[in-house]
Inverse folding.
């Protein structure tokens, strides 16, 4: 590994020393054709990939060295077209039109090349330095789709590289093709599509008067004809050009072509794509999609579809909970042995007692709880979730749930951002960019927090196990825990619908906007890669964040539990102060305070509660949950407290990271404040009602 | 008839689109153009969204969109 890094480093230096040449490459393509996979395969980076359109919402860039030249690569968001209508398309279009790049690689899906050719043709209209990368060759072969590369190259006039980025096939060929494409010096632009004669005449007239050093005159003429006035910046003497453009528009108007100019252009592109596809692609097996249809008939079934979804969720939770039990117990055992040894070591080393206590009773205690309770479930949950994502199940969830979202006048793609919230709400919020309508995007952002993220699962699981399923024997305890957790999640989903609807009826009034949802073909998940990547990229990332918050939180909570004022610890004073208020909602001062301190990361809520209770108790063994439950019960917990705490954990303010993301995405303090207030208020109301209704039954 | 009225698993040909605004362009970019062959393949549990097979891909549309796409039976 290390020698490999050195090698690459050396290559890099050499490249710089030699000529200081570099090559800028942009990756474009339809959504879900494997752009990120191609990007990762070339750069060796680990951008998260998944089988659903809209995975890449922001730009990623990376480098690789080939033939002693540094190649800078940028992964643009997937787009169906370069005629910007959504914010993602705009990013991609502007990049291709206005940024200087040497080569543009258009990634296509071999299994639906015809649709993809549309984008290829549009790119060819702008740039002459294009390489077509026909990805997912392995799938096309499985579906018996044959592509005649030679003919395709002839038709398009640029190099076409067949590849299968997942299995690293065709990588070198692509690198070579990029290199050749960069060196191509020609300035003569090809005409990939010819339009109706009248439009062509108009284009020719405009081209004649365009003097430009920036880009393809024909493309500029086309955009100017369509009244995209930003392109006047790119021509010399805009006034003169505008005069010609206006003349030509007038002529087209008389020929009845102006009104539907865009239609004519898109149709011409579509026809050309069909014509190319018809000559270059052979389908040897017309029923290649039968298998997908069979799966779809089951997973989107009227009755079974939604039940299957709930069942899958429960099964994932069941595997997570029962699978995490043993490693969690082992870790916690290990940490408690470690604690003894460290304590002895510090005592022998003559360490200051206060420092030792801060380190061991504060930092170590919080840190080890977070690691032992969070790591095992995450290491099981994330890979399973990623496998479903890789398989292509997420868009089907959106398809199944669309009816509900439609009733709430929200976008069906909100189901996708909601699913992402399971991993991390901040990721879910930035994922909302896939929703085009600003109104519907805001609804999705404001409600994302109603699905519990991974930081909140440990709290929920711990409370469920302690109070509701711990007394049962295996395997029933695991099943009951999973079902209860699923019920909590379903409540979160119902709240998402309900709040979305409420927002649509009040501050975000409006009708549902139009959108299209692509259901990608099912793909066999790459199990090995998924497990490795989801552990390294997601699990360790989330754990790292939790740990970095747990350390200062451990110190803070220790100080508060040990610094006294008038014979009471700071913690007691604050908890006592919050207590009467918290009691109204079925909780106590410590619980509420733990949620407030858990603002930077929800993972530390339970350890804070434990430490706060411990500061007035002597229980030190917290390996098993029975002892822990006793500690909670000693401090006045009942099953109603447990329910209210779980509800408040599900429905309360988003964590700091999520709020920062909301501020970034909405650009408004007002919406950020609402994102804080809405769930908090609802949570308090729900807890108030539940605690008062259930109080007589305790 | 409109696309929403087409029967499941019955191949139809697009005649013209009456959708307006950005969705019109989006549909055309997805290959839903006059003369394109499409086939309704799946209906969502609520029935208000259907998925169509078009040019090797599956595109799901709500009724409000497919109501504006006019089609005829193939053949």
């Amino acid at each position: 590994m290390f020698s490999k890094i050195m090698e690459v480093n050396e290559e890099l230096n050499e490249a710089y020393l030699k000529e200081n040449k570099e090559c800028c490459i942009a990756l474009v393509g339809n959504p879900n054709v494997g752009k990120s996979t191609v990007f990762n395969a070339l750069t060796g980076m680990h951008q998260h990939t998944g089988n659903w359109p809209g995975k890449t919402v922001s730009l990623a860039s990376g480098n690789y060295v080939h033939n002693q030249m540094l190649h800078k690569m940028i992964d643009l968001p997937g787009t169906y077209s370069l005629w910007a209508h959504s914010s993602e398309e705009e990013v991609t279009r502007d990049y291709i039109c206005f940024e200087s790049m040497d080569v543009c690689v258009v990634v296509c899906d071999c299994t639906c090349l015809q649709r993809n050719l549309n984008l290829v043709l549009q790119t060819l209209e702008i740039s002459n330095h294009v390489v077509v990368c026909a990805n997912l060759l392995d799938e096309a072969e499985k579906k018996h789709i044959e592509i005649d590369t030679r003919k395709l190259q002839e038709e398009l006039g640029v190099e076409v590289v067949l590849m299968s980025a997942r299995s690293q096939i065709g990588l070198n060929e692509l690198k070579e093709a990029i290199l050749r494409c960069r060196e191509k010096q020609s300035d003569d632009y090809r005409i990939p599509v010819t339009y109706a004669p009248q439009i062509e005449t108009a284009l020719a007239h405009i081209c004649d008067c365009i003097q430009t050093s920036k880009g393809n005159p024909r493309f500029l003429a086309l955009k100017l004809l369509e009244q995209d006035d930003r392109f006047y910046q790119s021509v010399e003497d805009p006034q003169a050009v505008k005069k010609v453009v206006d003349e030509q528009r007038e002529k087209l108007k008389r020929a009845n072509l102006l009104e539907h100019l865009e239609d004519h252009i898109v149709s011409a592109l579509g026809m050309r794509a069909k014509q190319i596809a018809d000559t270059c692609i052979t389908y040897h097996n017309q029923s290649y999609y039968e298998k997908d249809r069979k799966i779809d008939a089951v997973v989107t079934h009227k009755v079974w579809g939604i039940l299957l979804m709930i069942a899958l969720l429960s099964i994932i939770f069941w595997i997570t909970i029962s699978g995490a039990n043993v490693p969690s117990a082992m870790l916690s055992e290990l940490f408690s042995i470690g604690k003894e040894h460290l304590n002895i070591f510090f005592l022998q080393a003559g360490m200051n007692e206060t420092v030792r206590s801060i380190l061991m009773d504060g930092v170590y205690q919080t840190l080890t709880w977070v690691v032992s309770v969070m790591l095992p479930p995450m290491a099981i949950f994330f890979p399973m979730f990623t496998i479903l994502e890789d398989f292509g199940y997420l868009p089907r969830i959106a398809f199944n749930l669309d009816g509900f979202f439609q009733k709430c006048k929200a976008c069906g793609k909100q189901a996708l951002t909601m699913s992402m919230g399971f991993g991390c709400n901040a990721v879910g919020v930035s994922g909302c960019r896939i929703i085009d309508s600003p109104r519907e995007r805001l609804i999705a952002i404001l409600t994302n927090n109603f699905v519990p993220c991974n930081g909140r699962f440990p709290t929920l699981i711990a409370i469920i196990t302690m109070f509701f399923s711990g007394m049962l024997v295996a395997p029933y305890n695991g099943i009951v825990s999973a079902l209860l957790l699923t019920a909590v999640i379903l409540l979160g989903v119902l709240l998402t619908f309900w709040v979305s609807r409420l927002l649509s009826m009040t501050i975000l009034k409006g009708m549902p906007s139009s959108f299209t949802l692509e259901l990608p073909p099912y793909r066999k998940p790459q199990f090995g890669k998924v497990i490795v990547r989801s552990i390294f990229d997601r699990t360790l990332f989330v754990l790292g964040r939790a740990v970095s918050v747990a350390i200062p939180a451990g110190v803070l909570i220790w100080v508060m539990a040990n610094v006294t004022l008038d014979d009471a610890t700071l913690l007691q004073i604050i908890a006592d102060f919050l207590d009467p208020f918290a009691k109204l909602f079925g909780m106590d001062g410590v619980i509420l305070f733990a949620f407030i301190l858990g603002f930077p990361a929800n993972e530390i809520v339970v350890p804070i509660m434990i430490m706060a209770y411990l500061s007035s108790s002597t229980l030190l063994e917290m390996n098993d949950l029975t002892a822990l439950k006793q500690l909670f019960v000693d401090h006045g917990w009942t099953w109603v407290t447990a329910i209210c705490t779980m509800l408040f954990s599900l429905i309360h303010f988003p964590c700091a990271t999520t709020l920062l993301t909301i501020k970034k995405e909405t650009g408004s303090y007002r919406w950020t404040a609402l994102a804080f207030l809405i769930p908090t208020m609802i949570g308090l109301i729900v807890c108030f009602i539940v605690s008062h209704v259930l109080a007589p039954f305790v | 008839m409109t696309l929403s009225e087409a029967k499941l698993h019955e191949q139809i040909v697009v005649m013209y689109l009456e959708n307006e605004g950005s969705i019109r362009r989006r549909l055309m970019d997805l290959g839903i153009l006059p003369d394109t062959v499409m086939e309704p393949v799946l209906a969502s549990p609520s029935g208000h969204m259907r998925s169509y097979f078009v040019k090797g891909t599956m595109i799901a549309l709500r009724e409000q969109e497919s109501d504006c796409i006019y089609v005829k039976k193939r053949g």
